[in-house]
Amino acid sequence: MNTKLLTLLAVSAFAAVSANGQETPAAKIEIKDLKLEAQQTPQIQAANIVDKKWKPKTWLEVSMELEVKLPRDSGGRDGSLAAMEVKYYLALNQTTKEGKAIVLTGSVSYQNIPSGESHTLAFVAPSVLKRLLQKDNGGKTDVKGFGVEVLVGGALLAGKSSTGSQWWLDPKTKAPSEMFAYEDGGVVSKAKTPFAPFWGDYDVPASDK
């Protein structure tokens, strides 16, 4: 594995044409940090409902810090990207009956990403971890590698992984490697979790798609 392949991808003056023919603004995206955290299910109390007994479980959170730079004609420091897509990859310490390592994947579309520093959040549900790991409260130690790809208008602008390389890609074809068994939809946006009301404007919002 080439550990220098994907420590950081950035485009200095990029203008891409998306699949629908619309031109995307020139932009530079730098991934400053990428973290994997364990979060317990938040317990929220409310009036006028019948309470139910339950125990908090462990979610996995992927947190990315990025910096967006736009040219003057796109607003510069005061501008924003209309949208970007982040593809997430998490390799579990678990294999299928065929011996393939299981990789959780998910694509989250974010909107109104301001120029400058911002953050994105995505999550893996306890129910997904239990089904695949066959145990309760799987956590960070059950993940052997994770990474992201950031796309604007369908074009790759940046990427980063915990190993420094695009381990999920076949080095020859540049397509997802057949060495892995992919669980698409295993990683979801914050909006689809109990964490949706938390942290205010810390992270950029996901679109409704």
Write the layout of secondary structure elements.
Elements: E1 28-40, E2 58-69, E3 80-95, E4 101-114, E5 116-124, H1 126-133, E6 143-152, E7 155-161, E8 180-184, E9 188-189
Q: Widest sheet: strand order?
A: 7-6-3-4-8
Q: Assign an overall shape.
A: flat
- The tally of beta strands, per DSSP, is 9
Count up the helices.
1
User: What kind of sheet is the major sheet?
Assistant: 5 strands, mixed
Helix content: under 10%
Structural write-up:
The structure is a single chain. The chain has one helix spanning 126-133; strands at residues 28-40, 58-69, 80-95, 101-114, 116-124, 143-152, 155-161, 180-184, 188-189. It is mainly β. The model is unreliable at 1-23 (pLDDT under 50). The strands form two sheets. The chain has a five-stranded mixed sheet, with no helix packed on it. The chain has a four-stranded antiparallel sheet with strand order 1-2-5-9.
Précis, in short:
This protein has one helix spanning 126-133, and strands spanning 28-40, 58-69, 80-95, 101-114, 116-124, 143-152, 155-161, 180-184, 188-189. It is mainly beta and 209 residues long.
Search tags:
mainly beta; flat; 209 residues; 4% helix; 9 strands; single chain
